[in-house]
Amino acid sequence: MHEYKVIQDPVNGPVRFDGPFLEIIDTPEFQRLRYIRQLGLCYLVFPGANHTRFEHSVGTYYLARAFADHFALENRLELEAAALLHDIGHPPFSHSVEPLFREWTGMDHEEAGRRIVLGEEPFADSQIPGILEAYGIDRREVAAIMSADPGVPYSSLVSGPIDVDEMDYLRRDSLMCGVSTGSVDYRRIMEVLEPEDGRFVVEEKGLPAIESLLINRILMYRSVYFHKTCRIAQGMLNNALRSCRDRVGNVFRLTDAEIMESIPEACYREITGRRLFKAVVRIRYSGEDLSRVKSAISSMSEGDYVLDIIPPLEFSGPSRVKSTINIRMGGDEVPITEVSPLVRSLMKSLEDRYILVATRDGISVPGL
């Protein structure tokens, strides 16, 4: 009998690992994910949000295996490996400070993950490529799936507008944060997808299930991911890290705790003691007002304030909010935004931005 392990997942129940997947989860690269919080500093607002990239990766693998079984996909091993490894390159605190780490290294978590899977510098010592090769799994195809390469059949299952990554994190994040949004019926979605020429097509009867997915995604952004206090804490961590670049090594090998050990003690105590900056300015976004705000805070020390735009300017367009989904209706494929007023309305709500300034001790900003 083959050796196997079962991980008891609070969202999906028991998840069985054997063969290459059992070996992968025991590697140092994968075990590091136990110490990377899924939602960064959101636990300061939602106390239950202490779940990690490790358990999310387990759940994503579980769903990929379920879909691969249901549709009898021929490249299932590569798809399952990509699902398990899709977050292997996440730096500490997940997305919270990733833009800063990208500025430092030229890599985001997707590029770091690709290099870990391929064994490329600075991850030439990665154990992942050898395991994949030993089991006849094409590591280049795995990396291509992780990079959403449309040339690989059904790569959108792992990274696309309807993917197992999102089906897991929406359910997991909403459960751990204790919010009612985020409910996703992945079994129903499975039933309304039709595999065709290496991609999945949504049948007309599947419109309500896909609407529910998109609506819950947008509501989670509004209620959790872009919560102003979470964003303030993230801004404070960014400020702290900018002052200690020389003390930080390869961030894609570090954990949350190791990063926190690198920042100045005063900043560490502020963040971990939840002595967060107070919001003193909140106005609707415009380019003119942003220039006015920047001018007003120019005389302040950078470590004494957080300036943010919520939602961020880069978070816009159908591809970013993943609404590029077509519904097959009457033989034609129609964008969901053309047939769903609900989706159109909620997408528009994400364009309603505001400028936030938070300061230490709530000190007011002259002229604002």
Keywords:
alpha+beta, four-stranded mixed sheet, three-stranded antiparallel sheet, 13% strand, globular
- List the domain count as a whole number: 1
**Could you spell the SSE succession in H and E letters?**
EEHHHHHHHHHHEEHHHHEHEEEHHE
Report strand %: 5-15%
Individual helix count: 17
What is the CATH architecture assignment? Orthogonal Bundle
CATH topology title: Hypothetical protein af1432
The SS-based structural class is: alpha+beta
State the separation between the terminal residues, measured CA to CA: 70 Å
Account of the protein in words:
InterPro entries: dGTPase-like (IPR050135), HD/PDEase_dom (IPR003607), HD_assoc_2 (IPR045509), HD_domain (IPR006674). This is Nucleotidyltransferase. One of its GO terms (biological process) is dGTP catabolic process. GO terms for molecular function: dGTPase activity. The protein starts with a strand and ends in a 9-residue tail after the last strand. The model has no long low-confidence stretch (mean pLDDT 93). A hairpin with a 3-residue loop joins strand 1 and strand 2. It has 368 residues and is of the alpha+beta class. The protein contains 17 helices and nine strands. It has one domain: Hypothetical protein af1432, CATH 1.10.3210.10. It is globular and about 65 Å long. The strands form three sheets. A four-stranded mixed beta sheet has the order 3-4-7-8.
Helix and strand topology:
Layout lengths: L3 E6 L3 E6 H7 L2 H4 L21 H19 L4 H10 L12 H8 L3 H10 L9 H7 L4 H8 L17 H14 L8 H7 E4 L2 E5 L3 H19 L2 H15 L13 H7 L2 H8 L5 E7 L2 H11 L7 E6 L15 E4 L2 E4 H4 L1 H9 L4 E6 L9
Parallel strand pairs: 4-7
Antiparallel strand pairs: 1-2, 3-4, 5-9, 6-9, 7-8
Helix pairs in contact: 3-4, 3-9, 4-8, 6-8, 9-11, 11-17
